[in-house]
Amino acid sequence: MADNDDTEALARLLRSRRSIRDFSAAEVPAELITAILDDARWAPSWSNTQPYKVAVATGNLKEQLKEQLSERYDAATKLQGGGVFRKLAAFLTRSKALPDGDFNTRFEYPKELTPRRRATGFGLYATLGIAREDGAARNRQMRRNFEFFGAPVVLFIFVRQELGAYSVLDAGIFLQSLMLSAQARGLGTCAEGALGTWAGPVREAFEVPPAYKLLCGLALGWPSDHVVNAYNPGRADVAEMLIPVKRD
Ligand SMILES: Cc1cc2nc3c(=O)[nH]c(=O)nc-3n(C[C@H](O)[C@H](O)[C@H](O)COP(=O)(O)O)c2cc1C
Prior knowledge:
The protein is 44% helix and 12% strand. The chain is of the alpha+beta class. It has one domain: NADH Oxidase (3-Layer(aba) Sandwich), CATH 3.40.109.10. The protein has a four-stranded antiparallel β-sheet. The longest helix is centred in the N-terminal third of the chain and has 23 residues, at 59-81. The termini are far apart. The model has no long low-confidence stretch (mean pLDDT 94). Bound molecules: flavin mononucleotide. The site of flavin mononucleotide has 12 residues, from strand 3.
C-alpha cells in the first residue's frame, strides 16, 4: 500500500520534471547511471518481453559521437539551403547529411496537434530570446540537440520492431522510468527524438544487435541554472484529454 509520502513524492516528481536543455560539465558517477538503469528495468512491458536495449556514452566516446552527429547536422543544414541539384548530388554521393535512422523523424503533424507543436517551439525560442525570423539562431539551438545540450552522458534507446506499436510503447514507459529515476536523484534529462535521425555513428560505436532499431536518445546530467531549463510548455487539462460519452 502506498502511503501519503509516496503519493506526494510521485506527484511532485511527475509534475516537476522538465526537459533539461543545458547541463553543467560535472560528470555523473558510473554507479549513479547504473542505479537509474536498475530502477528503470522494473518498467512494465508486453508479456514482460522488455524489448529494448540501451547504449550509454560518456567521456571520449560521447565527445566523438557529438562531433560526428553535429557534422551531419551541419551538412544537412547546408543541404536545406541548397537547390535541387545540391540535393541530388547529396543523394548520388550518399552524403552524410542524409538521414540513416531506423525510424522516420520528420513527419507531417496532424492539423489538430500542430498548434501545440508550434506553441512549444515558439515558447522555447522566446525563453532563449531568439526571434522567430532569426533562422541562424534557431539552427544553432537545433544543433544543441546533437551536442546533447552539453550533457556528460547520452543514452541511446533501441527497440525491437516486431511487436509494432507495443514495443515502442514499452520503450516509452522505460524512457519515462529512466527520466523519473534520474529526477528523483537530482539529475536532469532530455528525451531526444532528434538523435534518431542518424544511426550510423551510433552503430559504429556500439555492438548493436541488428534487430534492435534506434528509437531515440536521452541526455543525462546535472541541470545548469540556464534560463532554458525553467521553460515549462504546460499541458492540456484533463477535460481536454477526455473523450466524451456519445449521447443521442
Ligand atoms: C519521445 C520524445 C522525444 C523528444 N525529442 C526531443 C528532441 O529531439 N529535442 C528536444 O529538445 N526535446 C525533445 N523532447 C522533449 C519534449 O519537447 C518535451 O518533453 C515537451 O515539450 C514537454 O516539455 P517538458 O518535458 O519540459 O515537460 C522529446 C520528448 C519525448 C518524450
